[in-house]
User: What shape does this take?
Amino acid sequence: MGSNAYLDMSLIHPHPANIREELGDLSELVDSVRAHGVVQPLVVRPHPRRQGAFELLAGHRRYAAARQAGCDRVPVTVRHGVDDGQALELMLVENCQRRELNAMEKAEAMGALINRDYTAADIARTTGLSSSTVSYYVALLELDDASRDKVRSGLVTATDAVAAVRRTRKRARAKSGSSAEFAWEPDHLTGTHMLARKARRLCDAREHTMRRRIGKTACGQCWESTIRADERVVVGVIADELASDLESTGTTPVRTGR
Assistant: This one.
C-alpha cells in the first residue's frame, strides 16, 4: 500500500524504463484534466537518485495530460520501499490491468523482468496472466528491430508475428536435429566472467533497463565499454612494466611516430 498526497509537478520524473512508449492522442484527456483535474492519482516512489524528488511508476498518460493542461500539482499515491525490479513489476501490472499497452510494449516490459532473472512463471504469478500468455508475448522478443516496429505500428499483428517466430524455431530445431554432433558452445559473456560485476554496475548506472542483457548481466554496449576500459588498464600496466625493465637495464625505449 502507499500514502496519498498532492505533489508539485516539478518533483515528479517519469521512470526511465517507462513501458508506455506511445501515449496516443491526449487531446480528450487534456480537456478532461482542464475541466476536472486529475481524478485518479498517479503512482510514484521516492526517487532512488534525486533527493526530495519522486519517480513516476503508473499514470504516464495522466502525467503528460496534466503537463499539457498546465497543472501545478497532481494527486499521487506514494509507494515506499519499491526496488527497481518491483518498479518494473508495478508498471507492467498496472498497464496490463488497464489494457493500455500494445503487444510489443508488453513483450518488452516482460523482457526487462526476464533480464532481472524473472522466470515466465514469476511474471505470470505477478501479472495474473497465464504462463502460455506470457510465453506468447515473450516470443515477440525474438523479432528483429524492423519486425518489432511493424508489430508496434500495427502493420503486422502480434498473432502473425508469434506464428513466424514459432516457424523459425521449428526450422532451427529441424536443422540442429539433422546432425547428432551439433551443439552450441557455452556463452562467454555470462555472470561468471571476470568483468561481469563491473559490466552489470555500469549498465545499472546508465539505466539501460529496457535493453536485452547478454548473459543476464549487461547490454552489449556496457559489456563493450567495460572490456575496452579493462584493456586500457592492462595496456597501461604493461607499458609501465616495460619502461621499468628498460630503465633497470639502462636501455632507452624506442619511440615510434604515429
